[in-house]
Design goal:
The structure is a single chain. The chain is 38% helix and 21% strand. Helix 1 packs across helix 3. The protein has a four-stranded mixed sheet, sandwiched between helices. The chain is an alpha+beta fold. Helix 2 links the parallel strand 3 and strand 4. The protein has one domain: Endonuclease, Chain A. The protein has three helices and four strands; from the N terminus they run αβββαβα.
């Protein structure tokens, strides 16, 4: 199943997440479609999806359930989904936290190490 890029335009949080992802060593496709799903970002070379989650959206149990079903489906296709909070994308310190979280998940789940950040 080949991903298709840019289904809709990005919101402000997704644009900020895109800047964080552009500092990594992996190509990131915004608003990519994978089957019936549109994901915020796809790192196709390593089969990783990165989602910017808002507290407002995820305070709804039905939406959380829908996200878990999507994540489970994508995992079955071999994708790793990394979730980050949109409020962490508001400040430089928060964006650093997001970058560290993504790098940590890549190191833990995909055994991908980055030379730009020392991981504990």
């Amino acid at each position: 199943m080949k991903p298709v890029a840019m289904v809709r335009s990005m919101n402000v949080s997704e644009e900020r997440l895109g800047r964080v992802l552009s500092s990594l060593d992996h190509r990131a496709i915004p608003q990519a479609r994978i089957g019936p799903y549109t994901v915020d970002f796809l790192l196709p070379g390593i089969k990783v999806v990165v989602e910017a989650d808002s507290i407002l959206y995820h305070s709804n149990p039905d939406k959380v359930r829908r996200d878990r079903l999507r994540d489970s489906h994508l995992q079955g296709l071999g994708y790793l989904t990394i979730h980050v909070w949109t409020h962490d994308l508001l400040t430089p310190r928060g964006r650093g936290k997001v970058k560290y979280h993504i790098l940590w998940r890549l190191a833990k789940s995909r055994r991908i190490r980055s030379h730009s950040v020392a991981l504990r």
